[in-house]
Amino acid sequence: MKHLGYTQIDPAEISDNLIRLIASDWMLLTAGTPEKFNTMTANWGGMGYLWNKNVVFVFVRPERFTYGFIENTEGFTLTFFDEKYRDALNLCGVKSGRDCDKVAETGLTPCFTQSGYPAFTEARIVLECRKLYANQLTREAFIDSEPLKTHYSTMGGLHKVYIAEIECAWIRLS
């Protein structure tokens, strides 16, 4: 991706506040193939170190159109944008790829990583992630029932959690 204005960095070199980057700035989680892919806005997840690997963990509800793409591929990308792309990220969070062409509606430009994962040229940071573990959240596993009551009482099924190794981290050159 260097030819697209990016340079590869060690994930530990990401200088952003990771909580703010995910919770407030949001990210696009994108999976699929060059022939067919989908993206969704996400702000539940994190980054860290597990099993001697730099990892991300993300949560996706089975009802989401992107879920099938994640399930059927080895990995996905997480892309982070400057604030000027907030409207595009918002659109990707409220519209479904089942019903519209989100990429066309946002005006974002798809590109593909060395691993063949879809990303966007406008992103400030691109993480190529290879799935290591996935498991469905269960009601019985909640120790504190507050999140269950607050986030799952009326809105769809429980999320599936994916833990993925960050295979490559790319940052846009200024």
Notable characteristics:
single chain; 174 residues; alpha+beta; Pnp Oxidase, Chain A; eight-stranded antiparallel beta sheet; 5 helices; 10 strands; globular
Assign the CATH architecture.
Answer: Roll
Distance between the termini: 15 Å
Outline the biggest β-sheet.
Answer: 8 strands, antiparallel
State the domain count.
1
- How much beta, percentage-wise? 35-45%
Estimate the mean pLDDT confidence.
Answer: 92
The fold-level CATH name is: Pnp Oxidase, Chain A
Total count of helical runs of at least 4 residues: 5
Tally of strands: 10
Helix content: 10-25%
**What's the gyration radius in Å?**
16 Å
The computed structural class is: alpha+beta
Tell me, what is the CATH class? Mainly Beta
Description of the structure:
The chain is of the alpha+beta class. The protein has a single domain (2-172), classed as Roll (Pnp Oxidase, Chain A). Helix content is 20%, strand content 39%. The strands form 2 sheets. Strands 1, 2, 3, 4, 5, 6, 9 and 10 form an 8-stranded antiparallel beta sheet that branches. A two-stranded antiparallel ribbon has the order 7-8.
